[in-house]
């Protein structure tokens, strides 16, 4: 047995080298005549390449490592092996530091390995020690771990690593070993140059690891993502019978770490979260339990894993896409270090992609702003992220993509990735994701183009790929961003102050935004009671609209859409004084965008070209306005109920009347414009300067179009009022106790007949979300804009937000007490109220509307005989399907939407049924559909269905 092998066994307990490459590298370092460059994947055993020679040589090996945490890990590990290794760092107790320095200054130091950060090695306090070691010839080697940090092309670039060039100049005769996990040509060159390596011997392992199985699952396509994750984890861990293994789930935010860990545990597999938001004790406990195999799954941010060396990691899941392919390779590479088969999976979501892309670009601009200039290298993170996106969205071998990214040859995957195992499945998934993306506006990038114009060909010969991410919260306490610390302290201070002020204030404690919040001025508390969550929700509404508006056919668009949405949201945020006005403004903008998108679409569609050319709302002349369009298309009633004396909002009666109005002929429409049919409108806006007139008394007065009469401000307020109503419907707390309604009662409708308008189902045209997104639900009613709703969610009485009222009254030039306003409102439009209430039912069910409207204009039959447009059919279908959705008959909202879309097409394609027929057919079809299946789980459930199944 050679001395090297003996030492390997004696010091490290290994019988043999892990690979020929490891052995060769160790021998090359030991020889000491050349610098050595080690480029081996994670877990290949790079550390041994300098640790073993360090023990076999006289003198001390100086090891530069970027993170104190990493250093501590290594030192502990070596100490446990009885290897004399220590570290000098800012965290070291001074007594220990003195002890180490004393040893280093002694004639023959005991220490063999000294770990140190690049900052410390350059610090003046360390210089005397360094010079002393140097002059006495006591430095055996200089080892630079994570050497890619020296490259400005890497994400992990650390300016202090550049100082190592100077160090190297001072230690000319000391052989240098540079080590990195994965560094393509460009980074390798940077390292060589910066560390002044002299024609180093290169030991580079191909990145391909055949024991790792890669696959990508589009998360949004899953009905039950957590159940899916659970099944995967269980399978990867080999059930309960196999040897103990464990897994890592990486999440981008602390919140999702908590959520995923909780869900997994609830579903039956024990999982613990790990992130910087946890108390140090809890975090350590999570890690310790996982390391000790007490808890099989750890759900962590990317800060977890650095220096964590666990051989039996059977799976690594990325619940959110990684920042770059290099980081992904690094993070996923923590699986299967023991060489046994292990799985690496990404649960990919285009939404994640857009958010992360946005954050990356935001970070770049922040840096550019700070430095006041742009650099070529700024593109690197974007390009690296593109490669990550391409990895997920392309049709091709995942291993090949990784290998090519790092400049290696295409490996023989042999079924170790989903594409090589079953390309059809991957294609099908991509196709389904594409369908979904067109419906949600989150486009999947069409290969080969990527979010930033990525062309996969570019990567064929290898591209910049860097070491892994070190950008999480734990990126060296020494380097902590003082701004961040200040901000955190500020928010902590505020919280504490609030707590001291009493419980009322404490209840309203502002929840600061997450680090990765995309909002501008996210931490601003300028608007009372406006939560970050509310703002984020509004942002998502805007983003969706922008995406739809822009077509979002390409991935780049969806990035831009988010960008644009962030700007719009911020603009609104800056301009709003209260939470309600803010929300109203957001919804107003959303409905504007919706409207213009719809108009554009109508213009494009041949079917609707005639409609479009005449007027944006002529399509509703046949008596049915979709619930989602009630507001957006009623520009003529902008001022309804606007004046200070009356509700700013439309009552149920207004809405029904508005339905009636849409039934009027074009001639009547014109008359209405000139005020002849105004009795339908309830409270009207009067010519500027005149007192408001109640419907009762104003029924015969002549008015011109309110929109023409209103000042810009008034119009804005009226629009806001209108949108406020939407807000109260969609986000407002539902008032469980139905307030009594004067002039009649509103019956609770059978579920099927509820309007999607106030019981928001995911209407095809619905721009609000239907899931329980945590909008600041309380704020609307809390702040006084109480949208009282009956059981069905229908407004029975609406009180204007005080701010709206104030502004409104101001513009009116006269003040009224809220009480007075209420009285007037109660007394106002009796005709309207009676008509509505007499009908005893407030509903948007098309047939009911038809009947009512029919009696109003006396032509219901003709109306329902008119052929339905696709849009109308879709609205009807959504209404028919809505109860099923609510009963949980669809696994996801998107599935519901897809099915509605499918059915609408099916019912109208190649035929011209009238709306009555559409409804009957739709109901029959749906009934048949659900008689065959319990619950719709995927699109496959209806793909095979044809018209004959109806
Ligand atoms: N010859 C060997 N035989 C068995 N195990 C080995 C051998 N060499 C190293 N190892 C073990 O392999 C694991 C990974 O080694 P090491 O931490 O050096 O990897 P690395 O390449 O530095 O990874 P990273 O990039 O994460 O730092 C360690 O547990 C180490 O003890
Ligand atoms: Zn493959």
From TrEMBL:
GO biological process, one term: cell division
Region feature (Disordered): 653-719, 731-839
One GO location term (cellular component): cytoplasm
Broad class of where this protein is predominantly found: nucleus
Record-listed E.C. numbers: 5.6.2.4
Key words, A-Z: ATP-binding, Cell cycle, Cell division, DNA damage, DNA repair, DNA replication, DNA-binding, Helicase, Hydrolase, Isomerase, Metal-binding, Nucleotide-binding, Nucleus, Phosphoprotein, Zinc
Domain Helicase C-terminal: 225-386
Record's catalysed reaction(s): Couples ATP hydrolysis with the unwinding of duplex DNA by translocating in the 3'-5' direction; ATP + H2O = ADP + phosphate + H(+)
MF annotations from Gene Ontology: 3'-5' DNA helicase activity; ATP binding; DNA binding; four-way junction helicase activity; hydrolase activity; metal ion binding
Subcellular location: Nucleus, Nucleoplasm
InterPro entries recorded: DEAD/DEAH_box_helicase_dom, DNA_helicase_ATP-dep_RecQ, Helicase_ATP-bd, Helicase_C-like, P-loop_NTPase, RECQ5, RecQ_Zn-bd, SRI
Cofactor(s) for this UniProt protein: Zn(2+)
Positions with biased composition (Low complexity): 694-708
Residue spans of biased composition, Polar residues class: 766-782
Domain Helicase ATP-binding: 27-201
UniProt keyword annotation of Hydrolase present: yes
Signal peptide per UniProt: none
Keyword Repeat: no
Family: Belongs to the helicase family. RecQ subfamily.
NCBIfam families per UniProt: recQ_fam
Annotated protein name in UniProt: ATP-dependent DNA helicase
Organism: Phoxinus phoxinus
């Amino acid at each position: 047995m050679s001395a090297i092998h003996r030492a390997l066994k004696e010091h490290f307990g290994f019988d043999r080298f892990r690979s020929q490459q490891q052995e060769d590298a160790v021998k090359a370092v030991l020889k000491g005549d050349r610098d050595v460059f080690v480029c081996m994947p994670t877990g290949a055993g790079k550390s041994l390449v300098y640790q073993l020679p360090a023990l076999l040589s006289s003198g001390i090996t100086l090891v530069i490592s970027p993170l104190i945490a990493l250093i501590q890990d290594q030192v502990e590990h070596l100490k446990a092996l009885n290897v004399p290794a220590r570290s000098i760092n800012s965290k070291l107790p001074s007594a220990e530091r003195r002890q180490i320095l004393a040893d280093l200054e002694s004639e023959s130091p005991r220490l063999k390995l000294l770990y140190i950060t690049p900052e410390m090695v350059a610090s003046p306090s360390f210089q005397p020690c360094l010079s002393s070691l140097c002059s006495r010839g006591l430095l055996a080697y200089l080892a630079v771990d994570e050497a890619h940090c020296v490259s400005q092309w890497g994400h992990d670039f650390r300016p202090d690593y550049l100082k190592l060039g100077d160090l190297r100049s001072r230690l000319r005769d000391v052989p240098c070993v540079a080590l990195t996990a994965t560094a393509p040509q460009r980074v390798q060159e940077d390292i060589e140059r910066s560390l002044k390596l002299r024609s180093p011997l290169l030991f580079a392992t191909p990145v391909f690891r055949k024991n790792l199985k890669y696959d990508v699952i589009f998360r949004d396509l899953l009905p039950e993502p957590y159940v899916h994750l659970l099944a995967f984890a269980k399978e990867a861990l080999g059930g309960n019978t196999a040897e103990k293994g464990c897994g890592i789930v990486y999440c981008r935010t602390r919140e999702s770490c908590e959520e995923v860990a909780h869900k997994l545990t609830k579903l039956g597999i024990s999982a613990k979260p790990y992130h910087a938001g946890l108390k140090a004790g809890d975090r350590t406990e999570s890690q310790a339990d996982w390391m000790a195999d007490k808890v099989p799954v750890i759900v962590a941010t990317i800060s977890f894993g650095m220096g964590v060396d666990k051989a039996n990691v059977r799976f690594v899941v990325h619940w959110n896409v990684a920042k770059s392919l290099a980081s992904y390779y690094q993070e996923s590479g923590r699986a299967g270090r023991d060489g046994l088969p292990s799985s690496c999976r990404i649960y990919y979501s285009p939404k994640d992609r857009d958010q992360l892309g946005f954050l990356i670009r935001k970070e770049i601009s922040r840096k550019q702003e700070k430095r006041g200039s742009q650099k070529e290298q700024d593109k690197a993170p974007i390009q690296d992220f593109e490669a990550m996106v391409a990895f997920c969205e392309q049709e091709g071998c995942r291993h090949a993509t990784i290998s090519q990214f790092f400049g290696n040859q295409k490996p023989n995957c042999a079924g170790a990735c989903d594409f090589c195992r079953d390309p059809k499945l991957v294609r099908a998934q991509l196709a389904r994701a594409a369908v979904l993306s067109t419906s949600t506006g989150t486009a999947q990038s069409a290969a080969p183009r990527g979010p930033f114009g990525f062309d996969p060909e570019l990567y064929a010969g290898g591209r910049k790929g860097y070491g892994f991410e070190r950008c999480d919260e734990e990126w060296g306490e020494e380097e902590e961003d003082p701004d961040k610390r200040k901000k955190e302290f500020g928010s902590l201070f505020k919280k504490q102050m609030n707590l001291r002020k009493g419980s009322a204030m404490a209840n309203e404690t502002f929840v600061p935004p997450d680090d990765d919040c995309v909002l501008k001025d996210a931490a601003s508390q300028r608007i009372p009671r406006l939560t970050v969550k509310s703002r984020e929700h509004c942002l998502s509404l805007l983003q969706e609209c922008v995406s739809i508006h822009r077509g979002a056919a390409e991935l780049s668009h969806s990035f831009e859409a988010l960008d644009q949405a962030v700007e719009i949201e911020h603009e609104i945020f800056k301009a709003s004084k209260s939470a309600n006005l803010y929300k109203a403004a957001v919804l107003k903008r959303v409905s504007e965008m919706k409207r213009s998108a719809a108009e554009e679409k109508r213009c494009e569609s041949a079917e609707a070209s005639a409609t479009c050319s005449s007027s944006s709302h002529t399509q509703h002349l046949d008596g049915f306005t979709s619930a989602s369009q009630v507001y957006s298309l009623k520009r003529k009633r902008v001022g309804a109920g606007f004046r200070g004396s009356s509700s700013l909002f439309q009552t149920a009666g207004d809405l029904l009347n508005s339905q009636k109005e849409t039934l009027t002929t074009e001639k009547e429409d014109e008359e209405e414009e000139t005020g002849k049919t105004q009795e339908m409108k309830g409270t009207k806006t009067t010519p500027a300067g005149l007192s408001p007139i109640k419907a009762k008394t104003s029924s015969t007065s002549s008015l011109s179009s309110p929109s023409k009469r209103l000042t810009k401000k008034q119009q804005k307020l009226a629009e806001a009022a209108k949108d406020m109503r939407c807000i109260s419907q969609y986000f407002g707390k539902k008032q469980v106790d139905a307030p009594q309604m004067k002039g009649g009662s509103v019956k609770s409708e059978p579920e099927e007949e509820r309007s999607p308008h106030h019981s928001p189902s995911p209407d095809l045209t619905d721009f609000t979300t239907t899931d329980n997104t945590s909008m600041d639900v309380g704020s609307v009613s809390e702040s006084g804009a109480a949208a009282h709703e009956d059981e069905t969610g229908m407004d029975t009485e609406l009180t204007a937000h005080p701010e709206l009222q104030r502004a409104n009254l101001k513009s009116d030039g006269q003040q009224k007490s809220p009480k007075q306003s209420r009285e007037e409102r109660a007394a106002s439009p009796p005709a309207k109220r009676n008509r509505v209430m007499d009908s005893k039912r407030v509903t948007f069910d098309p047939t009911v509307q038809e009947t009512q409207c029919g009696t109003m204009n006396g032509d219901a039959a003709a109306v329902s005989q008119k052929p339905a447009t696709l849009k109308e059919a879709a609205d009807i279908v959504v209404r028919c399907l809505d109860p099923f959705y609510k009963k949980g008959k669809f696994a996801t909202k998107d599935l519901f939407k897809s099915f509605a879309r499918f059915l609408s097409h099916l019912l109208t394609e190649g035929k011209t049924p009238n709306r009555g027929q559409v409804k009957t057919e739709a109901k029959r079809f749906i009934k048949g559909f659900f008689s065959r299946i319990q619950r719709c789980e995927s699109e496959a459930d209806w793909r095979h269905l044809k018209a004959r199944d109806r």
